[in-house]
Amino acid sequence: MTFDPGTPPPDAATDDHVLATWLAEAAGGRLLEVRGEGLEGKELKDAGDLAAHDLLMRLLAEHRPDDAVLSEEGKDDKRRLDAKRVWIVDPLDGTREFSEPPRDDWAVHVALWEGGELTAGAVAQPALGETFNTGHPPVVPPSTSPRPRIAVSRSRPPAFVHALAEELDAELVPMGSAGVKVLSVARDLTDAYVHAGGQYEWDSAAPVAVAAAAGLFTSRVDGSPLRYNQEDVYLPDLIVCRPELAERIVAFVQRHGTDA
């Protein structure tokens, strides 16, 4: 039986923010369905990746047939480099967390790149029933923590972030999914996400689009801009943080590098 994502909102025909949100939520619904099918471990991970990818590719082909797509789970079609519009998607970000019910720190990423910039994006956290998007960016509240909080991978935290935490008198907050970590800053669960050591464009495109729309600082760890739809899709590092922390974090990396 084919999963029915429902009908997109009427505005999705012309509004990329609306379409990105609907796509992320549709893929999230499919993933929740897969999660309830009794699979475990690698079988669950693989089934989730494939199901969400296939659905997103089908829906994009139907609703934006002239656009190119770069997906973590698909073959990289280099024709995207000459395209005016490219959807950059991660059908399931945080496969490990997805395969460990009832964990909720996994996500679906859908972003649109146009003419050198990210112009729309959505990050769904299906297990929370929440989607964050560029059409109605999250309102970032003032920090409720007396000390800065830095989101880090629960399995592979970069070594230099421990030194950065000492510099800022910050605490480290482990969690899964790059998208969840980026959005944790917008949700006042953390104040910064600093990563180095390996990611790809689909890991950060949608979360960065949403974070930037919400007024957060986004950059490479050396302070240079994040660039998407590049021939080499490896984009190993980033900073997403409250603007007031940006100068100190970038200065630390410029002084010490990421081998501290």
TrEMBL record:
Keywords, in A-Z order: Magnesium, Metal-binding
Biological processes annotated in GO: 3'-phosphoadenosine 5'-phosphosulfate metabolic process; sulfate assimilation
Cofactor: Mg(2+)
Protein residues bound to Mg(2+) 2: 90, 93
CDD domains membership: CysQ
Annotated segments matching region Disordered: 131-151
GO MF annotation: an example: 3'(2'),5'-bisphosphate nucleotidase activity
UniProt KW Ubl conjugation keyword: no
SUPFAM superfamilies for this protein: Carbohydrate phosphatase
Residue sites binding Mg(2+) 1 per the record: 72, 92, 203
Gene3D superfamilies the UniProt entry points to: 3.40.190.80, Fructose-1,6-Bisphosphatase, subunit A, domain 1 (3.30.540.10)
PROSITE patterns tied to this protein: IMP_1
Reactions catalysed according to its record: adenosine 3',5'-bisphosphate + H2O = AMP + phosphate
Superkingdom to which the source organism belongs: Bacteria
Name of the protein described by the UniProt record: 3'(2'),5-bisphosphonucleoside 3'(2')-phosphohydrolase
